[in-house]
């Protein structure tokens, strides 16, 4: 199982880069990866994270005032769904904290909810109990409470990701898992800028994957295991003779290893059905369905990543006179 962790990381990252390079299907010879859906090795490369950074946080014309960035980030993440954000913008315009109108946005979400789900199915987002009858209205109440507490100022003064996590986890219904996810999302923004190897919290799926790799002895020390894996990554890839394609030169960080353990837990349900975890789950629910080409990646400018990708096939043309591919 531990060797599978590293082999999965290489195969899944190669699949991502093959899609990014506009290569034709299949992008991998791994039949499990061909059939089932798994998130990217690097969390920041996933579709929702990419949209959050490129459109919600750093989008052209968006205010970079800390309160506005935090407001937009949390509003997006409470639903964690691109279509919901776009529906809000369509119905009320760009949402801002300076002109926040609870009833206006709540009514827009009421209408959106009538047409279909407005929450992502990626993970459960528990409802706070703040006096409203509908889940999304309670989340808007929670967002207002956080902003009224001047959370943007408190986050900007935090001396590490653990402190940010503690601020967020103290709010109703947020809990350890969401608090850590929100911490990482806010850390993509210009408001924070703390190193991603500063702090980690293992979610339920990651704990399952860690137990499959290390057994019951890893219970209670999952954060230490994740850190150990990140520190040993080069040695482990070398031990197995694997050439790991990094994210434009960026190594695995704590959040990436945390996600990898979660995905390897799912992968093992098919690859290693004899290995049991904590949850006892035996099936992978989501099938892989590509949603068009992968857009050009965007990452926090402070990471200083040089993104390299080839032009899409449709942007190339054949000059029949010269016989050259232009």
How does this structure look, described?
Helix 1 (about 1-20) crosses helix 14, helix 4 (about 65-80) runs antiparallel to helix 7 and helix 6 packs antiparallel against helix 7. Mean pLDDT is about 90; it is low at about 315-325. The chain is mainly α and about 325 residues long. It has helices at about 1-20, 30-35, 45-55, 65-80, 80-90, 100-115, 135-150, 150-155, 160-170, 175-190, 205-215, 220-230, 235-240, 255-270; strands spanning about 320, 325. The longest helix is centred in the first third of the chain and has 19 residues, at about 1-20. The chain is globular and about 55 Å long.
Quick synopsis:
The chain has helices spanning 2-20, 31-35, 47-57, 66-79, 82-92, 102-115, 135-148, 151-156, 161-169, 175-188, 204-214, 222-231, 233-239, 254-271, and strands at 318-319, 324-325. With 326 residues, it is mostly helical.
Explain the layout of strands and helices.
Blueprint: H1 2-20, H2 31-35, H3 47-57, H4 66-79, H5 82-92, H6 102-115, H7 135-148, H8 151-156, H9 161-169, H10 175-188, H11 204-214, H12 222-231, H13 233-239, H14 254-271, E1 318-319, E2 324-325
Antiparallel strand pairs: 1-2
How many strand segments? Answer: 2
Instruction: Give the distance, in angstroms, between the N- and C-terminal Cα atoms.
Output: 46 Å
Residues in β-strands, percent: under 5%
**What percent of the residues sit in helical stretches (DSSP H or I)?**
40-55%
Radius of gyration: 21 Å
Low-pLDDT ranges: 314-326
Number of helical elements: 14
Strand order of the largest sheet: 1-2
Give the SSE string: HHHHHHHHHHHHHHEE
Q: How many distinct domains?
A: 2
The 3D shape can be described as: globular
Global structural class = mainly alpha
Let me know the largest β-sheet. Answer: 2 strands, antiparallel
Averaged pLDDT, please?
Answer: 91
């Amino acid at each position: 199982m531990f060797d599978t962790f590293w082999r999965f990381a290489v195969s899944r990252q190669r699949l991502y880069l093959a899609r990014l390079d506009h290569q034709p299907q299949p992008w991998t010879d791994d039949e499990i990866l061909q059939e089932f859906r798994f998130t990217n090795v690097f969390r920041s490369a996933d579709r929702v994270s990419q949209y959050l950074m490129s459109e919600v946080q750093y989008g052209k014309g968006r205010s970079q005032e800390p309160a506005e960035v935090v407001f937009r980030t949390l509003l997006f993440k409470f639903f964690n769904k691109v279509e919901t954000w776009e529906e809000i913008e369509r119905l009320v315009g760009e949402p801002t904290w300076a002109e926040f109108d609870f009833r206006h946005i709540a009514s827009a979400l009421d209408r959106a909810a009538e047409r279909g789900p407005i929450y992502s199915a990626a993970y459960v987002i528990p409802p706070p109990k703040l006096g409203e009858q509908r889940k999304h209205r309670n989340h808007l109440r929670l967002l207002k409470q956080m902003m009224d507490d001047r959370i943007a100022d408190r986050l900007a003064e935090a001396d590490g990701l653990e402190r940010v996590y503690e601020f967020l986890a103290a709010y109703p219904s947020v809990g350890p898992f969401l608090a850590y996810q929100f911490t990482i999302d806010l850390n993509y923004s210009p408001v924070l800028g703390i190193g991603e190897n500063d702090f980690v919290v293992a979610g339920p799926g990651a704990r399952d994957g860690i137990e499959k790799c290390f057994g019951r002895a890893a219970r209670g020390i999952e954060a230490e295991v994740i850190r150990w894996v990140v520190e040993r990554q080069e040695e482990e890839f070398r031990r197995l003779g694997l050439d790991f394609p990094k994210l434009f030169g960026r190594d695995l960080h704590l959040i990436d290893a945390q996600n990898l353990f979660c995905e390897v837990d799912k992968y093992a349900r098919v690859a290693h059905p004899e290995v049991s975890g904590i949850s006892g789950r035996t099936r992978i629910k989501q099938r892989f369905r590509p949603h068009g080409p992968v857009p050009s990646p965007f990452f926090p400018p402070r990471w200083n990543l040089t993104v390299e990708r080839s032009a899409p096939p449709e942007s190339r043309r054949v000059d029949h006179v010269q016989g050259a591919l232009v």
